[in-house]
Write a structure and sequence with these properties.
The complex is a heteropentamer. Chain B is mainly α. Chain B has 14 helices and no strands. The longest helix of chain B has 36 residues. Chain B is flat, with a radius of gyration of 24 Å. Chain C is of the alpha/beta class. In chain D, helix 5 packs across helix 6 and helix 6 runs parallel beside helix 7. The two termini of chain D are 39 Å apart. In chain E, the strands form 6 sheets. In chain E, strands 11, 12, 13, 14, 16, 18, 19 and 20 form an 8-stranded mixed beta sheet that branches. A 4-stranded mixed beta sheet of chain E has the order 1-10-9-8, with helices on one face. The longest helix of chain E has 17 residues. Chain E starts with 20 loop residues before the first strand and ends with a strand. Classes of the chains: A mainly alpha, B mainly alpha, C alpha/beta, D alpha/beta, E alpha+beta. At the B-C interface, helix 9, helix 10 and helix 14 of B face helix 2, helix 3 and helix 5 of C. The structure holds adenosine-5'-triphosphate (ATP) (2 copies) and magnesium ion (2 copies). The site of one magnesium ion has 4 residues of chain D, from helix 2.
Chain lengths: 297, 309, 337, 326, 494
């Protein structure tokens, strides 16, 4: 009992300095990253509170013949589209789809690519050889084409779009994770762990991945931005989102015909994409700098 | 050296076999059949069956695969379902457009990205660096197809300076090349800047300073070559990707290059055309990467000696 | 006393250097004085982080830009102050008058230039006599020969050389323009013992042959004993003891830190069961202790040590900065002489 | 009587290698990193291993611990060949054999706290059931190696080299091993810290009866700490003798040069001519038969290259691999 | 000619660069140069300038001579005897003989049978009588055979076809224009054929079809003068084009019809089997808004899947105007007062999708919950064929013979995707196919269309007009209902 208390006491006394806090401290110094983070938070807040800003059914979906193609005004801050739907409402609701596509695809492909990359990097040998050849094969097909082919095969829908993008991103992540894992596996502390008799799985999860995670997270962050762009691109050529669901890339694609006379229709969703990608890139850059051990002091 | 080149080219074979399989596999899932697409929706059933049989559409996947490989080994990559012409003929017709586009964009990317990256690195944290890096950040965040649309809106519609579509003269290439190059140049700028900053920290740069070399000399003679290595890889990868087609940009600027062909073919379930295009692309990318590696070896003696020994 | 003015090559007075990082300021060098005569070899020893490299870089004004800064002091080289010199003048000094050999031969050569190009560059930069290209090339061959590298290997790249050979190339570059002063910053730490012996022997030989002065930075007291004429012991950015080589190795009186250093190395000649090292660690350079910087680790620390900066006590050529030695000792010593 | 028995026990080697070979496959050929090495270390003793960079010292240590698969030969622990052990048995074996690494910066996982690092072996080997026991053991170990309690939750990068190396030692000690391979444990440290660590290692040996294999390239250190010394050259052991004997009476030409290359921190030796070796270490890839030191040896005779050499006992316990002096 | 001439003579228009040529937009690259293997409107619009048809259709629907200068129906033998016009030259200078005609028919029946089934399946045999006479034996008497000869049978030159690569790279026919070059990345170049035999001689010397897929880009190109005629410009630009003093606008009715079809295959979808539900849906569609959004007003609301000019179409066909109240009432009557839910309206990208999107909104108003699913062309056709849909927004380009509408309506037609199974219609359809008397045939067709309307088997949406944006000064003197404006109808104003 007293021992128990003792242990707790010691733990309390010399509390762990959180590394996350340390990274956060360094990141806070990076003004650009903080701007990015602020913008990003606003975007997330916006998409979370989309229903408060504008009703989905009433403003984002409902058509209104008498309000077609109204330029921005006090009633409709961003104007209306060809069906008379409020552009602001569509943009706000669209952010949900666009942002979650970015995070979802990155998350899943990072997970799968991460597992594959960690295994191949750690074990090497024939398994590595086979998986990497497979990835080479997938990589030699341009990812956007692969995505297009998959969506064509499975039929366009949001889910299939997600699957296609995810699949097309896995090889890239596998490579990145593998190469970071390789550098980590060469380190002495992995050998030390082996010398202790740790099992491979434990080594991968406790030693390899936590040390490889920095560059992977940075890559992941950057990839969210890339995925938002890719998804927008695919929606732009008509693959993926089904009407009347608002999504930025799809909004652009719909607006394209009207671009000459109603430029705000393309400018607004475009800026929305650019801003979110911009903010995520800033965060990614900041994270990279914050995680870079050479900048530690 | 040439043994290495041959080895690399031989490595292409399993990749191509895999690529062919994946394409045939995916294409076998795309709905519809080539004949209905060709004959239109009002064609009678027996006509469709007849044409599909001619195309070998009803063969099971392994048979298709083996047949394809067998024919390919005899130099026969088939006729496009859509145009009934040899597939590579179709590719070659469109390739110049793609090649020109890719080539010009990569050159422009390098011309914009590298010098500005160097300036940024040298004038670290000075106003010019701030301007360059923040512009780069913005450009790197723009969706390319959107940038293309805006450029058309401004330069073609409003100012009527450049044609908005098609190919023909150099003026047709100005906007698409810029659209392709700007975001990549932004990335190259950032990459150049960070690799330059990396090399500035290196010991041999300090050695050069201790010799009494001027800043200029240090930058151009000692840092640049080392700093450019990752940049060259990035440019090579970009070039490879562009050869595969700048799908969205070709769409936006209505240029019928390789990617337009590929998309049309995917949509028309024109399997021979899709497969051939992707084979073509894979080979090109592999060769590009090989050339990049050669350039690498040319610049970096450490890598050169790896190949030679 | 051999500090006649005409013989004096370099004099450092009260040099202070700080490094500014984004979170705090490191006081790397805290007011050191050093003097070096022509054709002399000065050894600087001290633990990691004592400020040895910083001192050397300050002489050449090569401190990392925007981070390292000389806040105070003078570096008088051949009668001129280097700290106030113009950058363009400094460039002429570097390589031509003073050259430097860095610790790690693996990274101090540019991997993408041939050995010849790098050596040639040093000559070309200081080609004051407008020698022709072929003359310079002949000089390249000569220098390589001098450091024992066959000249037919000059077209090779650094990675094709072994560590010892690379370090010799670095030395050849440093000596190419026959500088008056060579600063060697741990030139052999990265090398194997046998190679280290080769390189050191060669350096001493060349130094004598070319009549140069040298500052040798090391933490190996063995090397100091073999090569130096004068020694300075650095601790936390200060020189705690300095003097002729005999003063350090044979005198009775020593700064407690020097005693600790000697106690730390296993002696090949005398059998010892246990070493008697200094306890504790170097102080944090961002937060140095007040008074004598060494007092937290000093076995002989007194109350005064933590309160007042110790005085410099001079016994002829031998200086000790410590409270344990008093002014009286100093004057007694003088009287005895 | 009692004394006698103890002596008997001690004479029995704890670790023995028999014709140990480790070749690496490289693109340019077979790299003979460890080539036919026979060593034995008695219980409670220290074997020093010296040699130039790349001569295979670390590889030797790692193959003995089976951290690397070996090419040929045997490793006997207490007379038992550990190579036949399966995964589970090997895991138990690992508790008896540990390693201290050269670089205290690279051998500690930067994402783990001191506690996590030291406790890791205890956790994976399920030595203690409760967290409390582990906690106590860790604190005990920290005390043993002289680490203050307050560092328990620090990350290794927040500490200096000396403290880090102490963590490494505590980790190696955590399972009370009998045998420890010390791979240059002090070469990355400053002299004063180096001495602290050396003292610690020697204290521990005394207290816990540990057996060390001490790898280093610093001859002064090796002399100080070892009972016996093996000199390695390009994968082979060229000379092996008790420490004092080796320093007093080196026989192999390479050992002689090695000893004379050490700069001695005293002015007496300053005047004496030192023997300087010319040339570089032989390439360990596909080495030629015969003496590997031959190209650098000033006594070189053609017959040196005629056949492979073996280690001969020139004097009691003093082994040399040389055609001319052996 | 709808072009008003307001004093400005064509040459003053700064956009006119070369009166010897016109530049026309092409929305996609050509599918093929071989007209028998072609199924695509854009391709047809271009290459029908090169090929000449065997017969022609007059504006009122009567068949008139072209390559065949006369014909007679020989009832006993079930055959047509065609006399070929003498002195017709192919583009390569050789003369067109009856053997070429026979070759053309045979080609259609053999190599391109799959592509040209509608016509080819009617023919039993073709016999050459002499150099200028050919006999075509039919399987059955056919009401629309001559009509099909006028729109589908294009002249091939036997010699040229066999010598060249089956018209993959070049074409030799006897149309008003000959092919100069084709490059899939740039477009098509045509040149007037001086020896064209027809009445309307080509006036424009050179025509360039430039590939510009993007509708907006076409407008830009028109404004800059890079383009003289655009068929697929963005409709939203209509206002700009009308206001632009240098541009003109021209439109004409055509065979296109946009409609929404129901899946009425046996028992598959319960509510859609109910006539009242189908009617309700027909009433709920806001056709005007659809026309506004999809066509910028350039269309008329449709009564039927048959197009306005079709043989058999009349005002007797019932029209469902937009009336939500009535629709709701009908839903109530049908027992679906609370509406129902179904899978998705499938559609392809483009105008069909816009219609579907509005339909979605309209359906919601009467309580029908659904979604829109945009699919690729191939998947769309696949779904239609296999009956894997509930409602589909689609369009067809029908010719002006009523039989073409039957292809869609009748279960035995070639496009029976709706799966209407109406015995009465089937019977009437059989009759109309062999009825050679055109008055009687008209009545049969009309009655079928009226019944289709009353039963609300389809939801016809609108008849779009073919619209052209042109450089002012370029006059259009006529059009072909099925193909649209052909090059021979173009001329520059003096
Ligand atoms: N670029 C830098 N930025 C910040 N601090 C620095 C920098 N370089 C050196 N320092 C700090 O300055 C102090 C002196 O460093 P210096 O390199 O001069 O020591 P040294 O005696 O040469 O050590 P070593 O024996 O390890 O080479 C150290 O505390 C070090 O951490
Ligand atoms: N994993 C490996 N693959 C290939 N070669 C290796 C590997 N590990 C070591 N070697 C090679 O084996 C030889 C012996 O290496 P080892 O690390 O044992 O030398 P060492 O004596 O410990 O050197 P140092 O003093 O530098 O630590 C070297 O030539 C090295 O290049
Ligand atoms: Mg230093
Ligand atoms: Mg080692």
């Amino acid at each position: 009992m007293t021992q128990e208390a003792n242990a707790v006491a010691i733990e309390k006394k010399y509390a762990k300095k959180s590394q996350i806090k340390e990274i956060w401290r360094r990141m806070k110094k990076n003004k650009l990253a903080m701007i990015g983070l602020a913008i990003f938070c606003i975007l997330v807040a916006m998409s979370l509170s989309a229903d408060l800003i504008a009703d989905y059914q009433e403003s984002a979906i409902k058509q209104n013949g008498s309000l077609r193609l109204q330029p921005p005004s006090w009633e409709h801050y961003f104007g209306t589209d060809q069906y008379g739907r409020d552009l602001l409402a569509r943009m706000v609701h669209g952010s949900r789809v666009s942002l979650s596509i970015g995070f979802f695809t990155t998350g899943i492909s990072l997970l799968i690519g991460g597992i594959l990359g960690a295994m191949t990097g750690y074990y090497g040998g024939i398994f590595d050889e086979i998986v990497m050849r497979l990835m080479d094969i997938l990589l030699s097909i341009p990812s956007i084409l692969l995505a297009i082919a998959i969506v064509s095969a499975m039929g366009p829908s949001l889910l299939n779009l997600l699957i296609a993008i995810t699949i097309s991103q896995i090889p890239g992540f596998t490579r990145i994770v593998r190469s970071t894992v390789l550098t980590v596996v060469g380190e002495d502390y992995i050998e030390a762990a082996r010398a202790c008799g740790s099992k491979d799985f434990r080594i991968i999860t406790n030693d390899v991945l936590p040390n490889a995670i920095g560059p992977i997270i940075v890559q992941g962050t950057m990839s969210v931005a890339k995925m938002i762009l890719l998804a927008a691109g695919l929606s732009f050529i008509g693959l993926g989102i089904q009407p009347p669901q608002p999504e930025w890339g799809y909004m652009l694609s719909e607006a394209r015909e009207y671009m000459r006379d109603y430029p705000y229709l393309v400018v607004i969703p475009g800026i929305a994409i650019a801003i979110s990608v911009f903010s995520i890139n800033l965060i990614g850059d900041g994270l990279r700098d914050a995680l870079d051990p050479r900048l530690k002091n | 050296m040439y043994r290495y080149v041959i080895k690399r080219l031989l490595l292409l074979i399993p990749i191509l076999l895999g690529v062919i399989f994946i394409i045939l596999f995916i294409m076998s899932f795309t709905p519809g059949d080539p004949a209905s697409l060709l004959l239109g929706q009002d064609a009678p059933e027996e006509a469709i069956v007849q044409l599909n049989t001619e195309f070998g559409y009803y063969d099971p996947l392994p048979v298709k695969y083996v047949k394809y490989i067998f024919n390919a080994l005899h130099g026969d990559f088939g006729l496009s379902y859509r145009t009934q012409k040899p597939v590579f003929g179709e590719i070659i017709k469109r390739f110049p457009v793609t090649l020109e586009l890719a080539f010009c964009s990569v050159i422009l990317t390098a011309l914009m990205g590298i010098p500005l990256g160097i300036i940024s690195a040298v004038k670290k944290y000075k106003p010019i660096d701030m301007i360059c890096t923040s512009c780069a950040m913005v450009f790197a965040s723009l969706p390319r197809f959107w940038l293309g649309l805006l450029l058309i809106l401004f330069f073609s519609v409003k100012l009527k300076l450049f044609p908005s579509n098609g190919v023909g003269s150099w003026r047709h290439f100005v906007l698409p090349v810029f659209t392709l190059a700007a975001p990549t140049a932004a990335n190259i700028l950032r990459l150049t800047r960070s690799t330059m900053l990396e090399t500035i920290r290196q010991d041999y740069v300090r050695t050069a300073r201790a010799k009494g070399a001027s800043e200029r000399r240090i930058i151009f003679k000692h840092e640049l070559k080392n700093a450019l290595l990752p940049v060259i890889t990035a440019l090579g990868v970009e070039f490879g990707m562009l050869l595969g087609g700048a799908i969205l940009i070709e769409t936006v600027f209505s240029m019928s290059g390789i990617s337009t062909l590929m998309i049309t073919s995917i949509r028309m379930k024109d399997t021979p055309q899709v497969t051939a295009s992707i084979i073509f692309f894979a080979v090109l990318v592999c060769i590009t990467m090989l050339i990049v590696d050669m350039i690498y070896a040319f610049i970096d003696p450490r890598i050169r000696s790896k190949y030679i020994k | 006393m051999d500090n006649k003015i005409e013989n004096r090559l370099l004099e450092i007075r009260n040099l202070k250097v700080i490094y500014k990082t984004d979170s705090d300021t490191v006081c790397a060098v805290n007011g050191i004085d050093l003097a070096l005569d022509k054709e002399q070899t000065l050894g600087i020893v001290g633990e990691t982080g004592a400020g040895k490299t910083t001192t050397a870089l300050s002489i050449l004004r090569l401190l990392p830009q925007d981070i390292g800064e000389i806040t105070e002091g003078q570096i008088i080289f051949e009668g001129k102050d280097l700290i106030s010199a113009k950058e363009s003048d400094m460039r002429k000094v570097r390589g031509e008058k003073i050259s430097m050999i860095f610790q790690d031969p693996m990274t101090s050569l540019n991997p993408v230039l041939t050995v010849e190009q790098q050596l040639y560059e040093a000559l070309e930069l200081h080609n004051t006599q407008n020698k022709s290209k072929s003359q310079l090339e002949a000089r390249v061959d000569e220098m390589l020969e001098l450091v024992g590298i066959p000249k037919n290997r000059k077209r090779e790249y650094p990675h094709q050389f072994s560590g010892g050979m690379k370090q010799r190339v670095v030395i050849a570059i440093a000596l190419a323009c026959s500088p008056v002063l060579v600063i060697a910053d741990e030139p052999t730490t990265a090398l194997d013992v046998t190679i280290q012996a080769q390189v050191l022997a060669m350096m001493t030989e060349l130094k004598n042959k070319l009549g140069m002065s040298m500052i040798l930075i090391t933490h190996d007291l063995g090397i100091v004993a073999q090569t130096c004429d004068k020694v300075a012991v650095m601790y936390a950015g200060e020189i705690v003891e300095s003097g002729l080589i005999e003063d350090i190795f044979e005198s009775e009186k020593h700064h407690p830190y020097t005693v600790g250093l000697f106690g730390s190395i296993p002696n090949l000649e005398i059998e010892t069961d246990r070493l008697s090292p200094i306890d504790g660690l170097m102080p944090d350079p961002t937060n140095l202790p007040f008074g004598c910087k060494f007092h937290p680790r000093c076995p002989k620390a007194m109350k005064i040590c933590s309160r007042r900066t110790p005085p410099k006590i001079t016994y002829g050529t031998h200086n000790i900065v410590c409270h344990a030695f008093t002014r009286e000792d100093e004057t007694n010593e003088k009287r005895r002489r | 009587m009692k004394q006698m028995k103890k002596d008997d026990d001690n004479r029995k080697p704890l670790i023995e290698t028999v014709n140990l070979k480790k070749y690496f496959n490289t693109p340019f050929g077979l790299l003979h990193a460890v080539d036919d090495i026979n060593l034995s270390i008695d219980k409670g003793k220290t074997l020093g291993v010296v040699g130039e960079s790349g001569c295979g010292k670390s590889t030797l240590g790692r193959t003995i611990l089976r951290l690397l698969p070996l090419t040929d030969g045997q490793v006997l622990f207490d007379g038992e060949n550990i190579l036949g052990y399966d995964k589970e048995k090997m895991r138990l074996m690992r508790q008896k054999m540990q390693m201290i690494f050269q670089d205290p910066y690279a051998s500690l996982n930067p994402r783990k706290t001191v506690f996590q690092i030291i406790a890791e072996p205890l956790i994976v080997n399920r030595i203690y059931g409760s967290r409390n026991e582990i906690n106590d053991r860790v604190l005990f170990l920290m005390e043993t190696v002289g680490l203050a309690e307050r560092f328990i939750n620090s990350y290794s990068h927040e500490l200096d080299g000396g403290r880090r190396q102490r963590i490494g030692i505590a980790r190696a000690l955590s399972m009370s091993p009998q045998f420890i391979v010390c791979d240059e444990p002090v070469s990355a440290l400053d002299v004063s810290i180096q001495a602290q660590i050396l003292n610690l290692l020697m204290d521990l040996q005394e207290r816990l009866g540990l057996t060390y294999m001490f790898i280093t390239h610093d001859l002064a250190v090796v002399k100080h700490i070892s009972d016996e010394i093996a000199v390695l050259y390009v994968g082979q052991c060229v000379e092996k003798a008790p420490s004092k004997e080796l320093f007093r009476n080196p026989i192999h030409p390479y050992t002689k040069i090695l000893l004379s290359s050490i700069p001695v921190p005293s002015l007496k030796s300053r005047i004496s001519e030192r023997e300087i070796i010319r040339g570089e270490v032989t390439d360990p890839i596909n080495p030629k038969p015969g003496c590997r030191f031959a190209p650098r040896c000033k006594f070189f005779k053609p017959e040196c290259l005629s056949e492979d050499l073996s280690l001969n006992e020139v004097k009691p316990n003093h082994y040399v691999m040389c055609k001319l002096f052996g | 000619n709808e072009t008003p001439s307001n004093g400005t003579s064509g040459n003053e228009n700064p956009l006119i660069k070369d009166t010897g040529q016109v530049v026309i937009s092409l929305a996609t690259e050509l599918q093929t140069l071989n007209t028998f293997a072609m199924q695509n409107i854009v391709t047809n619009e271009c290459i029908s300038n090169i090929y000449d048809t065997f017969l022609n259709v007059a504006d009122d629907g009567t068949i008139i001579p072209n390559v065949a200068e006369s014909w007679e129906w020989i009832e006993d033998e079930n055959k047509y005897r065609f006399k070929i016009k003498k002195g017709i030259k192919f583009h390569d200078g050789s003369e067109l003989k009856a053997s070429d005609a026979a070759f053309t028919f045979n080609l259609m029946m053999t190599e391109y049978k799959a592509y040209q089934a509608a016509t080819a399946n009617q023919i039993k045999e073709v016999k050459l009588v002499d150099d200028y006479t050919v006999d075509v034996y039919l399987n059955n008497p056919s009401a629309n055979f001559l009509y099909l000869c006028a729109i589908n049978v294009k002249m091939y030159s036997e010699k040229a076809y066999n010598e060249t690569d089956k018209y993959k790279d070049t074409v030799i026919s006897c149309g008003p224009y000959k092919l100069v070059s084709y490059d899939p990345t740039i477009g098509v170049e045509l040149e007037a054929f001086e020896d064209y035999h027809g009445d309307i001689k080509p006036k424009i010397k050179k025509a360039v079809f430039k590939i510009i897929p993007d509708a907006n880009t076409q407008v830009v190109a028109l404004e800059t003068g890079e383009l003289n005629l655009s068929r697929n410009f963005a409709m939203i630009a209509l206002k700009n084009i009308k206001e632009n003093p240098n541009l003109d606008f021209y439109s004409h009715p055509c065979g296109l019809v946009n409609f929404i079809q129901f899946n009425q295959r046996d028992n598959t979808i319960e509510p859609l089997k109910n006539k009242k539900v189908r009617q309700a849906i027909n009433y709920c569609f806001d056709k005007d808004f659809m026309i506004q959004v999809a066509e910028e007003g350039m269309a008329v609301p449709a009564r039927s899947v048959a197009n306005q000019g079709m043989f058999g179409y009349s005002e007797r066909i019932p029209y469902y105007e937009y009336n939500v109240e009535k629709a709701k009432e009908l839903m109530k009557e049908a027992g679906y007062e609370n509406g129902f839910k179904f899978d998705a309206i499938i559609t392809r990208d483009g105008k069909d999708k816009k219609i579907a999107e509005i339909a979605l909104e309209n359906l919601k108003a009467i309580g029908i919950e659904t979604t829109v699913q945009v699919v690729e062309n191939n998947a769309f056709i696949d779904d239609l064929k296999t009956g894997n849909f509930v409602m589909a927004s689609s369009h067809l380009n029908l010719n002006s013979d009523g039989d073409n509408a039957m292809d869609v309506i009748s279960i035995t037609g070639s496009v029976p995707f709706s799966g209407i199974n109406d015995e009465w219609i089937e019977e009437q359809n059989k009759l109309q196919k062999i009825e050679l008397d055109s008055k009687k045939r008209f009545d049969i067709l009309e009655s079928i269309l009226v019944r289709t309307g009353e039963e609300a088997y389809f939801a016809p949406i609108y008849y779009p007009k073919k619209s052209y944006a042109i450089t002012k000064g370029l006059n259009i003197t006529g059009y072909d209902k099925f193909v649209g404006v052909q090059l021979k109808y173009l001329e520059w104003a003096e």
